[in-house]
Amino acid sequence: MASGNIFREVELPEQKPDSDGALFPAVLSPISNADFTSTAKLNGFEEAIKAHKPWLESLLQKRGAILFRGFPVNSTSDMNDVVEAFGFPEAFYVGGRASRTKILGRIYTTNEAPQDKTIPFHHEMAYVPDYPSKLFFFCQEAPRSGGETPIVLSHIIYDKMKEKHPDFVEKLEEHGLTYTKIMSDEDLPSSFTGSGWKSAYMTNDKNVAEERAAKLGTKLEWMGNSVKTITGPVPGIKFDKGSQRKTWFNSLANSYGGPANAEIYDDSRSIEFGNGEPLSDSAMKDCLRILEEECVAIPWKKGDVMLVNNLMVLHSRRPLIKPPRRILVSLCK
Q1: Domains in the chain, ordered, with CATH?
Q2: What's the predicted TM-score (pTM) here?
Q3: Which of 33, 88, 218, 219 has the lowest CB atom count within 10 Å?
Q4: Confidence (pLDDT) at 37
Q5: Closest CA to 14 of 304, 284, 246, 286
């Protein structure tokens, strides 16, 4: 293997073959004689990452996501060291819609909405021009049941939606999407898009918030201490130069609160085509179904690290059935 004697690729029952026949996601574990059994050996993992980074990046581009399982990543500090070992620049969460908290270094909580609620599929920050290109997820405490982070290859969703609803996809490619969201000045952790404007734009100053929003293509309309954010039109489909494929790069599933997605109805947010036309409920119903049919949901194990190509792969969260669950995240350019 091009990775030398450090990593070995393993198979899990939940993986699915992609359109080229390769299993999604790639799953890497230590070779059987690698002494990666204690925190003291974390440096060995870090050095392996640095030594084989070109191969790992190539694998990520080919497969969309890599799950590292069985390596000695036990703490937030360990995870921060792993992120640093990869050397990707940090992507800051300016304009983000989810409530999250910095834990240490480049490690943050994932969406702080109640864990018994579903978070629909999305590309991270697909509604801003400067979105993260890579995401790290770290399982510090594994759920006893539920709480998976399903992932799905975005080009598959594009292909299936174009086959099923060509007119919908044509409008999406031609007009893009406009996202509207009302933010209060305080976070609302009960919502998976509950970030207040002060957290989202990292300021208490309305003028600074307007400046930072404008750089992200977002217009702010103040409503007392709350604000209506209007973002777009922004593309709903992107072209991935690495794979030479179009990807379903949007937040349709977690922004659309129409009849097909009544479970997440929230009148504080909405989404429409960039020309102002409403979205087709039948197309959205099929989109939500296809996402679920095509996704892979591997149960978390303590110490798992999942690296995701944010341009190629959508992710979501299934409801937690039996606590505990603690998944942390780092966003990278």
Answers
A1: 7-148+297-332 (3.60.130.10), 154-291 (3.60.130.10)
A2: 0.94
A3: 33
A4: 52
A5: 304
